[in-house]
């Protein structure tokens, strides 16, 4: 039979973190960033949903042509870029906090955070490239182009 330790019994003191593991104000800045970016993300996301779903013809109107027309306007490129970057930084910071809270071994924490930062970097770089290099009318055979592209 296994004995369960008394939850009210005093615990042995924890070792103080070394100077290398002390985070200083980084956690405070992360906490403040999460609150501020959450508010900005709400505005960006609901603006995105309003334009894409309610202002137009609803979800049935969202297709390649809709996105191409939207990204032809620099305002929507910047809007979507801000939404991508803030969402990725916000989410990465949240997962980083979870890893710090639950990964007990330093090696595990290092591997998980390295994978997290790599996923962040790949997603942000590819997303940014797609937003700014998107060309709905490339040089191709006219029968392969969308209907809104004029023949060259």
TrEMBL record:
InterPro entries: SQR/QFR_C/D, SuccDH_FuR_B_TM-su
Keyword Transmembrane in annotation: yes
Keywords from the UniProt entry: Heme, Iron, Membrane, Metal-binding, Transmembrane, Transmembrane helix
Cited SUPFAM superfamilies: Fumarate reductase respiratory complex transmembrane subunits
Region annotated Disordered, chain positions: 1-21
Any Pfam family matching the protein: Sdh_cyt
Membrane-crossing residue ranges in chain numbering: 28-55, 75-95, 115-134
Record's subcellular location: Membrane
Protein name: Succinate dehydrogenase hydrophobic membrane anchor subunit
């Amino acid at each position: 039979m296994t004995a369960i330790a008394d939850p009210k019994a005093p615990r042995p003191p924890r070792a103080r973190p070394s100077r290398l593991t002390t985070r200083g104000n980084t956690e405070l800045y992360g906490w403040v960033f999460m609150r501020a970016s959450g508010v900005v993300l709400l505005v960006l996301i609901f603006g995105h949903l309003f334009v894409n779903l309610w202002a137009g013809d609803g979800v049935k109107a969202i297709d390649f042509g809709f996105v191409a027309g939207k990204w032809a306007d620099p305002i929507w490129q910047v809007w979507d870029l801000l939404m991508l970057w803030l969402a990725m930084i916000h989410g990465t910071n949240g997962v980083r906090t979870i890893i710090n809270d639950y990964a007990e071994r330093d090696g595990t924490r290092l591997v998980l955070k390295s994978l997290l930062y790599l996923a962040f970097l790949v997603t942000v770089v590819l997303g940014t490239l797609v937003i700014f290099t998107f060309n709905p009318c490339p040089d191709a055979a006219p029968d392969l182009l969308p209907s809104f592209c004029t023949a060259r």
